[in-house]
Write a structure and sequence with these properties.
The chain is built from eleven helices and two strands, in the order H-H-H-H-H-H-H-H-H-H-E-E-H. The chain has helices at residues 2-22, 30-45, 50-74, 79-93, 96-111, 115-121, 135-182, 194-218, 222-232, 241-252, 282-319; strands at residues 256-262, 265-272. Strand 1 and strand 2 (265-272) form a beta hairpin.
Length: 321
């Protein structure tokens, strides 16, 4: 058991390092392959009905997690191979480096006043309609996306990896990917995507709270981050994006939220950290740096938590002999 937890710790660190060095490949990414498979299943199952969407979610997310569990079990007597599997899975599910790269690409275009290039790159980060946004609005969208995806693409995955090993990593990324694919409130997915969206809310809950807490710990304005989280985190329509975006807003000293456009529809969201200034282009780099610090600390916290849990189990087992 001790070797299992140590192997996970080593694999998680190697996978995190792999994301820092290699990021996501342009082609052949495992998550993209999962997305294609989920789309093929959707083509066969789609009906404007919650039950069909629930079956789709169970088949796709459950199938991916079951496959990962079988593979991990097959390597249970090969610690080196199991560590390598963990490293590969962590690298595959993390997206922190790609998140920073895309945010900086939009920020760079905004810095030189090239709004067309910024609008071309923004869909790599979020689903908002870039044609409806000016420069300051795009800066806000990028900061909000960096905050939310720090939880979705980094911290949440590390939490579920510490809890469930490779199957936990794969299951979390599968659920998060399904939510991005079918979990939005368009006419096609309002019912079909309900199960994926609700499951993503549940899966994302612990990672979002850890992300917000770490932003308070390592943000430039710790008091501001805690104050905004407490005051505004629950006002956001998303139970997980709210605490994360509010803590980032307070940590960076900027105002987030407000009116935005998704796929032709306009949403009016509560303002987060309302007494602060709106985000500027320079705040994109600050948000990326905060995201990186939060991700590194999350790796340490989750690995330490898994090692501590293993030590407690060993101690409990000795005490009952």
């Amino acid at each position: 058991m001790r070797g299992e937890h140590a192997g996970y710790a080593c694999g998680a660190a190697l996978g995190f390092l792999g994301d820092l060095i290699a990021a996501d490949p342009r082609r052949g990414h495992p998550v993209a392959a999962f997305g294609r498979a989920a789309s093929a299943v959707e083509d066969r199952l789609w009906r404007d009905h919650r039950g069909h969407g629930a079956v789709h979610t169970v088949l796709c997310a459950g199938g991916a997690a079951a496959g990962a569990a079988l593979l991990e079990r097959a390597l249970r007597h090969r610690p080196g191979a199991r560590t390598a599997l963990t490293a590969a899975a962590v690298w595959a599910v993390l997206g922190g480096t790609s998140l920073g790269r895309e945010a900086r690409a939009v920020g760079g275009a905004l810095a030189v006043g090239d709004l067309e290039v910024a609008r071309e790159r923004l869909p790599h980060l979020c689903g908002r309609d870039p044609q409806a946004l000016d420069g300051p609005q795009m800066a806000r969208a990028v900061v909000e996306s960096v905050a939310e995806n720090t939880s979705d693409a980094v911290v949440g995955a590390l939490v579920w990896g510490a809890l469930g090993g490779v199957p936990g990593l794969v299951a979390f990324r599968a659920v998060n990917t399904l939510d991005a694919m079918v979990g939005h409130r368009s006419p096609r997915y309002r019912r079909f995507g309900w199960a994926a969206a609700r499951l993503d809310d549940v899966a994302g809950w612990p990672g979002a709270r850890l992300t917000a807490a770490l932003a308070v710990l390592v943000g430039p304005d710790r008091r501001g981050a805690l104050r905004a989280w407490r005051a505004d985190g629950a006002a956001h329509p998303s139970p997980n994006a709210g605490p994360v975006e509010a803590s980032f807003a307070g940590a960076l000293g900027v105002r987030l939220g407000g009116t935005l456009a998704y796929g032709g529809r306009v949403e009016h969201r509560p303002v987060l950290n309302g007494g602060a200034r709106p985000p500027a282009v320079a705040d994109i780099e600050r948000a990326v740096r905060l995201s990186r610090r939060v991700g590194l600390l999350a790796l340490g916290v989750t690995v330490a938590g898994r090692l501590a849990a293993g030590a407690l189990r060993r101690g409990s087992g000795k005490g009952t002999r």
